[in-house]
Structure formats: C-alpha cells, structure tokens
Design goal:
- The complex is a heterodimer.
- By secondary structure, chain A is of the alpha+beta class.
- Chain A has seven helices and five strands; from the N terminus they run H-E-H-H-H-E-E-H-H-H-E-E.
- Chain A has a five-stranded antiparallel β-sheet with strand order 1-2-3-5-4.
- The longest helix of chain A is centred in the first third of the chain and has 24 residues.
- The longest helix of chain B is centred in the middle third of the chain and has 17 residues.
- Chain B is globular.
- The N and C termini of chain B lie far apart (29 Å).
- The chains are: A alpha+beta, B alpha/beta.
- Chains A and B meet through helix 2, helix 3, helix 6 and helix 7 of A and helix 2 and helix 3 of B.
Chain lengths: 185, 127
C-alpha cells in the first residue's frame, strides 16, 4: 500500500511537471535554499531571461507571504496543533510555455475575508490600474513591524500578468485553507 | 566622514557610498524577508552625508531583483535623498535595468512618478 501511494504521488508530480514542492514550516533558511535551487534549475532551461526573472520575483513574494503569514499566527486557535497551523504547501511547475506557482496555507476566517476583498480588487484591475494602485500603496503605505508593505499580491499580479486564481476552503469554525494558483507567462 | 561599503549577499545588494566623490551605488539583489534592518545604516549614512555633502551626488541603482519589503525601504531612501537635495548638493538618480527587463524598467518609472529628483532610467546589456 505504501509503495502504491508513493508511486501515485510520483506519477502525479511527473504528470504535473513539478520542479519543486515543499510542505512544512517555511523558515528564512528554507527560503534561501529554495530560491537557490530554483535559480540553478532555471539556469538550465531555455526560457527567456525575462520569464525566468518573473518566475523568480513572483516566487520570492509568494514564499515571503507564506513566511510572514506563518510568523503572524503565533497564538492561533486550539483546533490545530501548532505545526499544522504553521505549515504551508508550495509547488512550482512548468507547463508547456508557462510556469505555475501554487501555494496553500491555513488562514483564520476573519483574515480570509479581508484577503478575499483585496484579491477581488486586484483581479478587477487591468495593467495600468495595477500600476497606479501599486504606486499609491507604495507612496502612502507604511511598513509593518515584520517589514511587509501590503504590496505583495499587487506585485504578484503585475509581474505574472494574469489573474490570481484562488479559493478558500472552509475547514472549521475559525479556519479556512487558502489556495493560490499563479500562472506566469 | 567614513564611506559605507557592504558586500552583497544572496538576499542583499552590495553597497558603495562614497562621501568624497558623492557617488552612491546599490547593486545586486534586495530580497530580505525584513528589509528595515538592512536599510537602516544606509539611511543613517545619508543623514550624516546630507549635513556636508559635495556639490553633486549621484545614486546608481543597479538591482537585478527586489522584493516588496525592499521597495518601501528604497522609496524611503529616495525620500532622504530628496530631502538633502537643494543648495548644498544636486542629487541625480540613475536607475539601471537589463535589456528586455520591463518589470525593472517599470519599477524605475514607479519611483520616478513619486519622487521629485532628476531620474534617469538607463537600459544596459547586463547589470
């Protein structure tokens, strides 16, 4: 049975052409390693330097979102063990002419409502509007203590050039699971 | 005053701020999780330099990548330079981007739209 499970997982990853995937606690050291692995992997690819840069940029923002998010749920709820809440999943896949970055993490329902509103605003904007919105948040916003600027999702949308696909799966009374799918081409 | 020289790392740019020539350079990548700590000494240096700057100050920004945490710190750095620009020194920003790197070109335009310093956006083959 175990053998079959592993083989199925292997086949799925092969079929989806997953370059790298990770499930667990996202630390600063992990980010450094993942970014360095992805850079060397992409070095061998024929894609344009422009596309590789976009992928790297979007990846940095996605992973740092996970890193800061996990960092912020210090004292979350009692329905999960600490490790579960602090865990996240991400994967980077290459499909034909584009890359896909997927992330998944627990989020409390209140934050989910705010995030969904922000994502809808971003998805309703075209390239020029996103540029204006970015400049507005950049010039008026302040950095949080964690050093986040509220610009991450806007930047991801600008650089990917595609709408941010997302879903919030209800888990229990307090938590949802946030799935984000970003296509970069 | 002392010049500021910092080696670049996997997540932070190299820094060369020279008070005798008025040439300030940031080069490489700026993607630390929290950039406030990294940019603090740069801002402090500009404050000190601003008290007795040389007539012309040029800032060369040669970044390959920067994250959104850094983008705010870079803006604050430009604001500091904006504040010291005047009768004592004339500050010019040279924003470099690699051929075809529209994202970095646009990033330069973002700052150009916010900051009122002469801003040259320069395309180069390689940074």
């Amino acid at each position: 049975m175990i053998k079959n499970d592993i083989y199925e997982l292997y086949q799925t990853m092969e079929r989806e052409n997953i370059l790298l995937s990770f499930k667990g606690v996202v630390t600063s050291e992990l980010l450094s390693s993942v970014l360095s692995i992805m850079e060397s992997k992409m070095d061998y690819m024929d894609e344009s330097p422009k596309l590789k840069k976009k992928v790297f940029n979007v990846l940095v923002e996605c992973l740092q979102n996970l890193y800061h998010h996990i960092d912020s749920n210090e004292e979350q709820d009692r329905n999960f063990t600490r490790i579960e809440v602090k865990s996240a999943l991400f994967m980077i896949a290459k499909k034909d002419d584009h890359f896909v970055i997927r992330t998944g993490n627990y989020i409390d329902k209140e934050s989910a409502i705010d995030l969904e509103k922000r994502l809808d605003i971003i998805n309703g904007m075209d390239k020029e509007e996103l540029k204006k919105y970015y400049q507005e948040v950049l010039s008026n916003g302040t950095l949080s203590e964690k050093g986040t600027a509220g610009l991450g999702m806007i930047d991801i949308a600008r650089k990917s050039g595609n709408k941010l696909e997302y879903q919030f799966l209800p888990i229990n009374d307090v938590n949802s699971f946030f799935c984000l799918n970003i296509k970069i081409d | 005053m002392e010049n500021l020289h910092l080696e670049g790392s996997a997540k932070t740019p190299s820094i060369h701020f020279d008070a005798t020539t008025g040439k300030l350079e940031l080069k490489g990548r700026s993607i630390p999780e929290n950039s406030v700590e990294f940019y603090k000494p740069l801002n402090d240096w500009i404050d000190a330099y601003g008290k007795d700057p040389i007539g012309e100050t040029s800032v060369d920004v040669k970044l390959e990548y920067f994250n959104t945490s850094s983008s705010k710190c870079i803006l604050d750095l430009f604001k500091k330079l904006e504040a010291i620009s005047g009768s004592k020194t004339k500050v010019v920003v040279n924003w470099f981007f690699e051929e075809d790197d529209e994202d970095m070109e646009e990033a330069g335009q973002d700052y150009q739209a916010i900051i009122s310093l002469p801003f040259n956006i320069i395309e180069v083959e390689e940074i």
